[in-house]
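Entry 12.
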Amino acid sequence: MYYQRTQNFSSRRQQNWSRNQNTVAFVSAIKLGPVTHTVLVALMITVLGLIYLTQATRATSYDYETQKIDSQIAELNTQKSDLQIENARLTALQAVKNSSVASTMVAPTSTNYVAQ
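Predicted 3D structure (tokens):
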């Protein structure tokens, strides 16, 4: 039996390829001109700018909410201190009224005022 080769073998070394390199190159069928590239770059920059502005306004809205909450906290602290003062005043009056010294006191029968 006679065997005849139908394909020729060519080694990688003859084609000047190294290991782990692609032997096929992808060529795009779509060709873009310089104007199209410029428009695409401008569009990408615009989209990135809009994303940045969205993030910046979101941070600003958080700042306004924080300022509002801080003012509410300050107002509530003021109310708390006012209530503490009123509680101390009312508690002191009740303590004096219910004390043993106050229960032994009597109302004066007459009052005299000194004229200047």
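Annotation: The CA atoms of residues 45 and 51 lie 10 Å apart. DSSP finds three helices and no strands in the chain.
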